[in-house]
Amino acid sequence: MAKVEYPNELTKKYWDKKKPLVIKGKKTGIGEALDELNKKYDDIKWANYEAQNTIASIDKKLKELPALCREGIEPLGKTAKEIKTLATEWSAKFKKEKLTPKAASDACDAIADAAKKFISDVDDYQGVQALEYMEMRKQCVIKLRQVLKPVMTKTQTKIKGLLEDISKFAKSPTKDTYWSLFKGDCNARGYTTGCKNWDQYLLEFPEIRAQCYKGDAMDDFFPCMEDYGANWAEPQFEEKVNKKKCNGLSEEDTYKFHAKQMILATPTIKKFQTALDKLMTILDG
Asked: What does the alpha-carbon distance between residue 10 and residue 6 come to, in Å, rounded to a whole number?
């Protein structure tokens, strides 16, 4: 909707065209009132009533709508009611004047009828607009579920697998165990990808994101598994990770170090898991 349609009958141009020549000299006040209403209508910034197709924008507009209507829409109704009364009174007067053509009262009646409908549209505007916002929001949530649910379900599975992998690696912190669990499209890779997806996809839905976790996954959850989910080939891992973090350690102690780092990361991983569980509950709701 976003805009109340303005009827042609409520313009001074219509009144000037329809009123007979014999009454053109009469000061009815109708033309001035129509100009006033038209100006109030034109002064409304209708773009302020439009919501973007995001939950955040829609919720913002729902919150702002009552004040917007008080300031812009309701004054239209007040002036339109005055016009309706004025047109109705003049119609009755013209009908009593035998020398006044019927076109005069017809024009007044048309203005009064248009004003009546316009008043109804204005009175209904807030409720109708709110319903439109809610329908938009509903469609956004459907879209959100369609896009997010498969992606985040996969991340949930990867996190569960990652916690199992960490447990296995902690029991046998060897190079062979590490490379059997943390290479290619492994669970650690799925975890770090899930962090990126969380920030990217939920950027459009901040109010839903805030219900689950208010921080950024890439800042808070990603760093602890950044090296282990990077899909390094063994030579790259040796060069970029081991030489920087484990320089001087034996191979045995190097992989014990990595196992310890993952154990220390477990609470952070579980925190992300909890945020995901909250999101899935919202998506299923």
From this structure: 7
